[in-house]
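#struct-help
A.M.: can someone run this one for me? Single chain, 395 residues.
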Amino acid sequence: MQVTRGAIAAPFDMALVQRGARLRRSPYYEATQRHGPQGFTVYNHMLFPIRFDSFEAEFEALLNDVTVWDVSVERCLEISGPDGARFAQLLTPRDLSRCAVGQAKYVLICDADGGIINDPVMTRMDEDTFWFALASSDALLFARGLRHAYPDLDVTIREADVAPMQIQGPKSRDLMRDLVGEEILELRYYWWTRAEVRGIPVVITRTGWTSEVGYEMYLLDSSRGTELWEAVMDAGRPYNVRPTGPSDIRRIEGGIFNWGADMTYENNPLEMGLERLVAWKLDDDASISLAALRRIEQAGVERRIVGVELDGEPFPALNFTKWPAHRADGPGERIGKVTSAIWSPRLERNIGYCWVPVDLAAEGTTLRVETEWGSRTATVVPMPFVDPEKRIPVS
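D.P.: on it. Structure tokens below:
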């Protein structure tokens, strides 16, 4: 068909995006279809339901009841073998010797230049076996490549066949107690335990990507995804359980970053304000990133990511692109970018993250931001926006 030059074409129908066997399906895929997902994305080469209702409705459900979220897209990089602990330490500047078997830690996987390759939750399954629940980047391939630089280490690197789901919100304790028994209430924040749900083997962690009270449950038999999903939904009915996607409203309120949006391998922990995840007392050869991070610390960083409030009408959705940021009253050149921004119904303001030069990172600094919905003034404010001492998820 000939297209007339200058004619206005119809927008592309995203339902036509090819979705073949190359894109993997979650063990919970069939079960989630029964609840009418209203959108998907692709994350770690897997189809990922992003919402079942409006973002605001799912946010309210997370704050008041209990939500279930299919996060099996967080594929688990498993490091094991006699030298598993040594190799796992090479990946991250955080001191893994301080992580006990049965414990979990938020860690950064960093390259030899200090750049952040991924920011997973790591669980220590035994003395030499570690699971890294990955954000959407090919950290598995990174680890397999790194192994060739250390041929003397006896280590196995693979993707563990496990499928996590998140059970989050103030009533998640009640649901989990009914599902696996009273002892689950004794599980400490950032620790894990093994359990069975109606005969289905799982690992349960006291973690989540919501800044709310919650759990993650790792299915160990991927053939039983529908069974596990329905068991969770059955147990949750008295507590108004509902399936959701990721709550970007709540994670931004809570100061949680999204790898690929808020940071990439071009950023380092010091720019992110995540120096607490670097064990400066370790020797340089313990982790491939430590020498570079020491150089960065000595030289100082030139940019930082900061929290911002943006004026004007509520944003109708999460930003689709990274917005240019400019000095509020200076020349028009771009000096930074807003990476994530959304309307918070609770705070009644637009909030987000912005990369800026260090001289513009101070609280109260104003910027001009070009959004998808017009020019806005952004003001630098402290992060997190809600519960800065992280008392809610720990409670």
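A.M.: thanks! The chain has two domains: 28-301, 302-386.
D.P.: also worth noting: Residues 262 and 339 are 5 Å apart (CA to CA).
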